[in-house]
Amino acid sequence: MNVKSMLAVAAVAAAGMAAMGVASADQFRSLYAPIAPPQSIDLGKAELGKKLFFDPRLSKSGFISCNSCHNLSRGGSDNLSTSIGDKWQQGPINSPTVLNSSLNLAQFWDGRAADLKEQAGGPIANPAEMAFSHTLAIDVLESIPAYVREFKLVFKKDKIDIDQVTEAIAEFEKTLVTPNSRFDQWLLGKTDALTKDELAGYRLFNESGCVACHNGPNLGGNSFQKMGVVEPYKGNMPDGRAAVTGKDADRFNFKVPTLRNVELTYPYFHDGAANTLTEAVDIMGRLQLGKRFTKEENDQIVAFLKTLTGDQPQFMLPILPPSSDQTPRPKPFN
Amino acid sequence: MNVKSMLAVAAVAAAGMAAMGVASADQFRSLYAPIAPPQSIDLGKAELGKKLFFDPRLSKSGFISCNSCHNLSRGGSDNLSTSIGDKWQQGPINSPTVLNSSLNLAQFWDGRAADLKEQAGGPIANPAEMAFSHTLAIDVLESIPAYVREFKLVFKKDKIDIDQVTEAIAEFEKTLVTPNSRFDQWLLGKTDALTKDELAGYRLFNESGCVACHNGPNLGGNSFQKMGVVEPYKGNMPDGRAAVTGKDADRFNFKVPTLRNVELTYPYFHDGAANTLTEAVDIMGRLQLGKRFTKEENDQIVAFLKTLTGDQPQFMLPILPPSSDQTPRPKPFN
């Protein structure tokens, strides 16, 4: 379903409810779901993956780890418009949050990776990001005795390979969900979890049609949609989904970003051009919905969006095993 | 006391003990002390300091935090020869570990900061490191409501200032000690905490004179000594202590680095030129002591050095408060 047909459904629903005088909050409820705690986690794999996620030795420079751009102290993002890669290269696109990313239909803004495991291999070997290669990364890990033992314990194989590395990182990332936001408490029956203004924002979010794309447990992440439906987007505009499908119809289509923890994941949009939620809501209203929200409406929607901040993953900072005399040394400056 | 007179004392002691047939391990014991747990910590200040230590918003780019170069997953160091600063500038000197740094007589290799509080302000404003200014850092912090509240709670003042920032960071750093190494267990009476080879290495460490500079609870950090006593050092050679004192006699003098956790803080020396402990022990033996250790001796000393790895600081990854609409945005690319 594309954004226009979704909007039509939302509009019909809103009109129907308005006609019936029904409290609209309840009618849209079924389009959402609370974030569930992680299920079926292989803890050994996830613990290993946590170390790898924080280990800069997966980069050529020995300086950049997954956590550099998906900083778990900062909503799983780097809070930069576009990321900083090897030798301070400027990335082409905004780093999406890793939080709740297991709920997305695909990974990267253009969905070029089917899942977290496939995604995890990308930045390691991307010359503009960690600038390493899978082979070199494995050479490093194989030279670190404590990693060799831990991989053997977890994967029961004689040799480490990149599949094990990305599988462990993906398993850790599956644990990075953020349940218990005030919105989720409200969804689960705590009727006073949202203030009057936040509820008004929730109604506007639904009735204006934001929900057409930002729905499901992740309020997004479950479809590709065009950036600039009613008006074209004036910022930096890569091909988006079309780069993957080769279809002209997919130009300027992006995976709809999750709105979970959106208060923490500024700046917004694929190019990180919107610094504030106020600005993002205003632009989305005009470009996607043809609406100009009043200041009060914008404030209410922003207030609602801030109820989507859930419990951040809490864990001990991992202690990484030291390199050995045989470990190839990082090359930050050549 | 300079390195030569210290060596003389050590030599006399070693000769005396050898003459008496006394087990030398016990004679040198009083030159060391176990790492003590942190005392008199202001926990509110330390918790705030932990957040600041991990917060890249204290840098111009929004990408570099204290933890970038003093990575607490990696022995409080970055494991690079020299660090990476703003715009990937190559630092002039190896990042010393922050672990147990509260025990040092001064901070930085040249001791130009009297204490941790004074040190903490340096990198923030250094154009080659975090490239910010104290004023801009305070502007950022003052714009973040959760920080404003936390500073007020901890310091009971109306305004945040750089003194509070560096005091909080220093208080956190005081907690970063690493007690309970096997060497400390041995010092505290667990006679089987060290293997035969490790004890042999300990004796060599003492009797060869390493202890002349690497003594006290931190096995170093308590004096400035010349790099290249017997033979000149062939690597990169900044002025060292002379840059602070202006005295020619202090040229090539550096604060003796701690050997605590030295297994984790490779590469070694002020220029990070020695990749392995084997190499570092060999070079130190020749340049500082005029000794060429055999392979067996070198192995034994290295085995002893690896008993100096203590319990690494264990804590939850801090969750940083989000910026507000008023927060000045980072400028990584201009």
Automatic annotation (TrEMBL), chains A, B:
GO terms for cellular component: periplasmic space. InterPro entries: Cyt_c-like_dom, Cyt_c-like_dom_sf, Cytochrome_c_Peroxidase/MauG, Di-haem_cyt_c_peroxidsae, MauG/Cytc_peroxidase. Keywords: Electron transport, Heme, Iron, Metal-binding, Oxidoreductase, Periplasm, Peroxidase, Signal, Transport. GO terms for molecular function: cytochrome-c peroxidase activity; electron transfer activity; heme binding; metal ion binding. Residues 1-25 form the signal peptide. Residues 44-152, 196-309 form the Cytochrome c domain. Binds 2 heme groups. It is found in: Periplasm. Its cofactor is heme. It holds the Pfam family Cytochrom_C. Binds 2 heme groups per subunit. Heme c 2 binds at C210, C213, H214, M284. Heme c 1 binds at C66, C69, H70. This is Cytochrome c peroxidase. The lineage of its organism: Bacteria, Pseudomonadati, Pseudomonadota, Betaproteobacteria, Burkholderiales.
